[in-house]
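Researcher: Next sequence.
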Amino acid sequence: MTQPIQAWAAPGPARPFERFSYDPGALKADEVEIQVEYCGLCHSDLSMWTNEWGLSTYPLVPGHEVVGRIVARGAEVRGLADGDRVGLGWFARSCMHCAQCLAGDHHLCARAEATIVGRHGGFAQRVRCHFAWAVRLPAALPSASSGPLFCGGITVFSPLMEWGVSPTDRVGVVGIGGLGHLALQYLRAWGCHVTAFTSQAGKAADLQSLGAHRVVASGDDRALAGLAGTLDLLLVATSAPLDWARYMTTLAPRGRLHFVGAVLAPLNIGAFSLISGQKSVSGSPLGRISTIARMLDFSERHKVAPVVEHFPMSRVNDALAHLQSGKARYRIVLKPDF
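Model: Next structure:
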């Protein structure tokens, strides 16, 4: 008989989290079980909690920025051992045999399973995943703050590799929160000239310390006009609907407006703004398993780290309220205290 897993679960949309226990069943042959040491609280957890995306089932155990140690392995697990320190992000499983998986694009698998969609995540003592999605954490990266790298980190790092961003490129980041503050650090370490767009003018000194060469108020029309035709890439790390047609004017020829934030409203972008200058609009979900490993190595080498605030997991409701208020700087990490 399997040992029950203690967790924190929401019994319904936007309902307060309560103690919850569940039987995980027998461990699958290709799975590992991870003892959760830390788990990040992401805005996607908030969206799942409220069922903003229509994907949630209840009781809901969120948590997809896990750092912990492997405590059990199925018979088919390869390359990992009990006690290994690993991280787990948004995806917990992919089919491993479709064209996308065989090409290394496991994150694009049509049958991929998200860690907190239809299964229980990391607001718990333990969590399970296919062994390929449990990625070893380099020795120099601390467990207490590295969980957000497995969602926020890979989300903003992957486009640098996917689109061949050059160290000579000029890149803008729209929205400097949990995703954006990591994007500034990666882009600065990559060698790019970095412009931060923010609605909070008081953040300027903070954003410069994170890597921005220039900070622009997102509502400053004159500043935006002064950037016309200068940016090779504009990385959108906010979920807020903005005047994207106006931001398109900042792109240089062959420039790209790339979304990693879940903006739900339709984009107000006309075809001529793309045709003129041969510009592009795109988006991406997280990244390849291999890219996660490269992102972690890059983070270790260049000392890129999330700025985090810690809460005990028993105060998950307080942590959610802090995130909802917009006061989090810049990521929240929960520590299990069952």
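Model: The chain has a mean pLDDT of 96. Residues 157 and 295 are 7 Å apart (CA to CA).
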